Amino acid sequence: MNLKYVLVLISLLGIFSLYILSLFSQLPTVALQDLQHNEGKKVVVDGIVLSYHLTSYGSQLIEIRDVNATESGYKATVFSQTEVPVEYGDHISVIGTVQKYNGDWEVVTDNERSIYIVQNWQNISFPLWQLAQNPERYAGTHVCITGVVDRLSDASFYLNDYEGKYSLLALFNHSLTSRFSVGDTISVQATFAYDEKNLRYVLQVQDEPTPFNVLSEE
Amino acid sequence: MMDLLLIIVFSVLGVLVGVVSGLLPGLHVNNIALILLSVSGSIVALCTPLSSFGISEQFIVVLICVFITSVSISHSFHDAIPTTFLGAPEEDTALSVLPAHRLLLQGRGYEAVVFSAIGSLGAIVVCFLLLYPLRFLVGEPLNIYAQLQEIMFWVLIAISILMLATEKGKITDFGGTKKTQHLIGIGFATFVFFLSGIFGLVILNFPLSSPIGLPATVLFPSLAGLFGMPTLVTSLFTKPIIPQQTLDTPMIKGKIQRASLISIISGSLSGMFVSLIPGISSSTGTVIAMNTRKETDNEQTIVTLSAVNASSAFAVIILLYIILKTRSGVTVAINELIPAEEWTSLLIPTNLIYLLIAVLFSAVISFFLCLRIAKIAAQHFTAIPYGALVMFTIGLISTLVILFTGILGIVILLIATCIGLLPVLWGVRRSHCMGVLLIPVILYFL
User: Fold this and answer.
1) Residue B95 pLDDT > 80, yes or no?
2) A203, A145 Cβ separation under 8 angstroms
3) Which of A212, B213, B233, B389 could make an S-S bridge to A40, C-beta 3.0–4.6 Å?
4) Do residue A83 and residue A70 come from a single domain?
5) Which residue of B171, B188, B198, B327 to mutate against A (max A Cβ within 10 Å)?
6) The model's pTM
7) pLDDT on residue B1
């Protein structure tokens, strides 16, 4: 057979083989503490967004922590050449190359499509007991909590679980008070933070976006 | 004064490395930039004695960027020499002969390199003259780039159609009239374009990793396979009869002078344009320039192609500072070493000034060096053990692919080489293989 036709066939078969190969050779998913063993390799990492900022050159640095780690656990920085719309507390999955930069481990992405938001922080809802048992795991991140409103005042209220076993103070702007009343079941989107002055964890509710969703009224 | 002296020293070193890389057939300047980037840490370490002369480590990194820039400029001049003197097909059997090879087969190989060097240097001068217009056109206040981005999908579609519709190759295998053969040629070009595109989509997120921890990019084996290896492989199997070469410098006067000037200007503008658009190469720029001015003679095609290449090598550096986008391996390397500072005012950023000095200085030295080396090549190239040189280059590229991307990289290189051989064997333009980048980029903007 003429070489010209053979090459057409080989090219088609080659691309098909590469496609099959790509299905079986998925990138390894690596925990943040194992990044050091994967320098120069392309990997997938999962993490919760702790902070993010744009550099003066238009690129974005996103600090993530392991999905299952504690606050004192492993962290890494994700480098993206362009801005990706992530928010604090989002669960993201990143495809990138592991590099060491200024002594810290960095996952450098090829393009913005290499960062995938697995779950937006507003959609990650926790029961109060989960926060109570692992407060350090969620401290400093956005959370979405469902509970019953109790002891409502101008700038705060308590969020109780259905059994009344756990209770958490939520601090907010007084202009939001008219939206619900004591006994309503609501979901709250807020930052779960440690209040050093009073030695306790609190929910710090921001004005925007709509932080409360009334699920049922008393 | 010491700063300027060091910039000149590093430019000269860059030019010398560019001579070597440019003379090795099939080695792309982007690969050289990635290699230099991966060893930049060692270069900084080597240069630390300079700190005793009051040179900061920050400036040493700038000097490495000056070096990389000079390598790229020198490479773009000198790769015309192996392109002209090596890999010429047997004219009777070849379906597509490069313009430089046509002149070589007429005994005018040296002339081909002279036209190429004139095109390259001319483009650098034109780019310098257009530095500020480019700044105001692409950046503030006119913001052409921002407007282009909004219609990028259609721009890329239009470029793809232009590339395919202007294919002139005729495929005679299936008989038919000349018109039918031409249409089959366009059809096959479209097949190559889409085949390369599907190949690009399949390998886009392929898990490559370097066995020695180097940055692994899938573009290296794929582009080396699509564009570098096919020339090398075909030249291994061809034994053209090359006539005695003349060493006459072409007289560029009157009509030729005017035509060359137009080629340089159209090539430079085209090179700047392709540098703005993601996913297209300087060969696409040449097609655009040649179709704009309707000139098809060999000499002017060479001048235009070289002008597009040099202008593109220059423009990507300027655009890095205007739109903060990396459009080549060289700018990726520079941006990794010294993150670009946006050029927003009249004053040119300091680091860009250093790079511009390097570009101008390297271009002038490379012009004269290139002519000198071309003269030697024209006199002695029949004595070069061409088969051994080609085998050495194939071995070098394969070794680099393994070092950078591992065994999977070699698989990609092999398949890319098969795809890259299709246009060569069927007689259509090789630039259709740019579908490997164009189709994924088009889908991205969809």
Assistant:
1) no
2) yes
3) B213
4) yes
5) B198
6) 0.70
7) 72
Q: What is the token pair recorded at B141?
A: 């206040």
pLDDT for A208: 61
Is B424 an interface residue toward A (CB < 8 Å)?
no
Q: What is the domain-level CATH number for residue A182? A: 2.40.50.140
Q: What is the pLDDT of residues B375-423, one digit of tens each?
A: 998 888 777 777 888 888 889 889 988 988 889 899 999 999 999 999 9
Higher pLDDT residue, B277 or A140?
B277
Asked if this assembly's ipTM is beyond 0.90, the reply is no
For B174-214, the pLDDT digits (tens) are 888 888 999 999 999 999 999 999 999 998 777 777 787 67
Which residues in chain A touch residue B237, judged by CB atoms under 8 angstroms apart? Answer: none
CB contact under 8 A, B199 and A15: yes
Collapsed DSSP state (helix, strand, coil) of residue A51: strand
Residue A98 forms part of a structural domain = yes
In a domain, A12, yes or no: no
Domain residues for the domain of A96 are 32-121
CA distance B393 to B23: 10
Put simply, whether B341 touches A (Cβ < 8 Å) is yes
B252 touching chain A per CB within 8 A: no
CB atoms B214 and A40 under 8 Å: yes
Residue A137 covered by a domain:
yes
In the listed set A60, A90, A121, which residue is the last one of a domain according to the structure? A121
Which residues, other chains included, contact B247 with Cβ-Cβ below 8 Å and sequence gap of 6+?
Answer: B110, B375, B378, B379
Which of A80-94, B56-70, B350-364 shows the lowest mean pLDDT across its residues? A80-94
* Residues A116 and A85 reside in one and the same domain: yes
Residues A157, A206 share a domain: yes
Per-residue pLDDT tens for A41-54?
Answer: 778 898 888 788 88
Helix (H) / strand (E) containing A137: helix A135-138
Which of residues A70, A104, A121 is at a domain's end? A121
Contact A42 B213 (CB under 8 A): no
Residue A90 lies in a domain: yes
What pLDDT, on a 0 to 100 scale, did the predictor assign at position B94?
Answer: 46
A144 in the same domain as A89: no
The ranges assigned to domains in chain B are 2-445
The yes-or-no verdict on residue A69 having pLDDT over 60 is: no
Check CB contact under 8 Å for A42 and B342: no
In this structure, the answer to whether residues A99 and A141 fall within a common structural domain is no
Domain total in chain A: 2
